[in-house]
Design a protein that fits this description.
The structure is a homotrimer.
Chain A (H helix, E strand, L loop, with lengths): L5 H11 L2 E5 L5 H11 L2 E3 L7 H5 L4 E5 L6 H14 L3 E4 L7 H13 L4 E5 H9 L20 H15 L2 E5 L3 E5 L2 E5 L12 H15 L4 H26 L3 H14 L2 H7 L2 E3 L3
Parallel strand pairs in A: 1-2, 1-3, 3-4, 4-5, 5-6
Antiparallel strand pairs in A: 6-7, 7-8, 8-9
Helix pairs in contact in A: 1-8, 1-9, 1-11, 2-8, 2-10, 4-5, 6-7, 8-9, 9-10
Amino acid sequence: MERMDFAAMLAAVREKAPLVQCITNIVTVNDCANILLAAGASATMAHHPLEVADAVAGVQALVLNLGAVGDREAMLIAGKEANRLGVPVIFDPVAAGFTGLRRETARKLLEEVQFAVIRGNASEIRSLTEDKEGGSGVDVAQADAVTESGLPQAAELARTLSKRTEAAVTLSGAVDVIAQGERVLFLRNGSPTMARITGSGCMLSALTGAFCGASPDKPFEAAAAAAASIALAGERAEELRLKKETGNATFRIDLIDSVFNLTEEQLIQGVRYEVYQG
Amino acid sequence: MERMDFAAMLAAVREKAPLVQCITNIVTVNDCANILLAAGASATMAHHPLEVADAVAGVQALVLNLGAVGDREAMLIAGKEANRLGVPVIFDPVAAGFTGLRRETARKLLEEVQFAVIRGNASEIRSLTEDKEGGSGVDVAQADAVTESGLPQAAELARTLSKRTEAAVTLSGAVDVIAQGERVLFLRNGSPTMARITGSGCMLSALTGAFCGASPDKPFEAAAAAAASIALAGERAEELRLKKETGNATFRIDLIDSVFNLTEEQLIQGVRYEVYQG
Amino acid sequence: MERMDFAAMLAAVREKAPLVQCITNIVTVNDCANILLAAGASATMAHHPLEVADAVAGVQALVLNLGAVGDREAMLIAGKEANRLGVPVIFDPVAAGFTGLRRETARKLLEEVQFAVIRGNASEIRSLTEDKEGGSGVDVAQADAVTESGLPQAAELARTLSKRTEAAVTLSGAVDVIAQGERVLFLRNGSPTMARITGSGCMLSALTGAFCGASPDKPFEAAAAAAASIALAGERAEELRLKKETGNATFRIDLIDSVFNLTEEQLIQGVRYEVYQG
């Protein structure tokens, strides 16, 4: 596997300023829009079933967030239209195993839409892979939390879903696992406070849309660069939180600011990744 | 009445990290999730009528916010299921007297769901008690604002609703009144800027869910401890606002941060309450 | 044209504290509520078709935001009721040219509701005037961006829509153009970072509601004073951003704070406007 050029991926986002459409939940929709703007992308959150096909025709990437399960009709219409037009589609299976409605909607989306990237925590990825109950709400189940010793299993889980769906897969956790087919990357950036705000995952999925929109032929690299960018921003925000003795609300603001101010240099110097050889 | 052990209630939230489900309005849903995370609880905002019963089965408390009046079907399903499972339910009658739809929905919820705590401003509590028009939108009507001389009336209002509904009642204002049956507590913490942000009330209701989820057998103490926690956080945020010469937006951030950083010690030292003997 | 008294308009908002109802999109609804509170107004975001007529009866201004296109039935009911009661109605045609559903909804709203002020970017105003496709999502199309040399055309565009609709028109851009019939004002305040957050436009429309609610007989002056207020707040937030080396998320907070802290004096001293004589 060649060396990852994260900086080039970030530069592409800023140069092309892709318009990213998110059909996403009411909780974090504002954060998703603002992090897209922070990265240099543009955002539309159009989600009405009667307009999403029109909207998709004008965007460079589409993000479907299962938290917006009430918009599942719009997600299906938009996803299929995006496939028809060659617009990359990202899937965030928020709390996929939490309720029957989510399991069923996730299954239908995976059947009818070809995704470029699927991004979730270990419980959500497991739920898609095993199609069974799991996860405690929007959080990862304790049994699923990615630990150092559990990394090989997490890699296998991501690989399995990737092979089955032909999508790149980002399995987020203390270590992020990015897979496409047999290729697997471990990414060792981030901060613990990301789990103390709502929307860390949603924002990463939105950002993955921005990176895919700028580099539509490289979903694996886009997924990895998006994960690296927000994780590095999280480290910077954590540093500020400790220094200023603030809390999770300021952390969220500093996280978005840090994406706004992230330089290619910082990304090159700060990223800690390794190719998984197992 | 024994001495209130607010610190123990806060410790329980942090130890048990209850998962709180909020069916709440689009305006403040993000703030509610973040303040739950700040307190050490976890949050799910699942609100689709086809999934709320599933979701309730996995949570430790349920918060129904009348601002989400469009989700009234989901609120009824979730509320009844929570009652069946013994999950405590909190009701926030946002702007209950403002429109016919809200009055009717509030009446139906009170008929069909047994609440552990009802939390509103004086106009909202009055509206539930008298089942008539009142309140100017989401704000308390001037005639209803809790003043020192009006405290006995506010106490009676809260008692009346508590006895009728068998719920603890938090009547929020410059002085918070917490009642359960004949028991009444006055809480003299808080800051005037809380009325200059949207979501102070919604966040307190969400937080009340966290405290009830951690201590399901003590709704009165949970309601009081939640009110004390956010009020003390408001005092800290007010201090910062005056010092930094900021405004309501920074205040909102500092409020959530202050819940994140609130210590049992601060709660013990800062809380100013008295048992109403009238 | 007499000298504009922006300070008197701001003073009226703070004195009368108008209650403003926004039927607005899920992305920026929280920001709209908080900027209304920052300005000294009050906010209700009631948007259910079964309650908006009731709500309108209690408010001083109504803001309809096309981003909430799913609430178009509620927008029509509320708009017509507001007209019947003499409550000023503001229209924000978010991304009006982006999809067929938005074009059709905008056309219907313009046919059935008399607006006091219409506020959009150049692409949106053009879309309403020419009733054809345009705009890239929620952002202004590059061809439509208001430049110094294009100001006369922007003025004509705003005049055309104003004459056709009998509403005052705010065309937002690097220079804001405010028109009513033949009267045109150019406003040269603001900051480039306003385009890097979501909600700058929505917040201005909400604020325009506050100013119209306080001065219902002066829609042109209200529109201009609202635009001046947020633009000056944007300048202050920009100053802070550069000084503190923050990003768009902190900018958004500082923008709302700066409206909170805006003084009549600052408004008088800082505003840069000119009457267009063309």
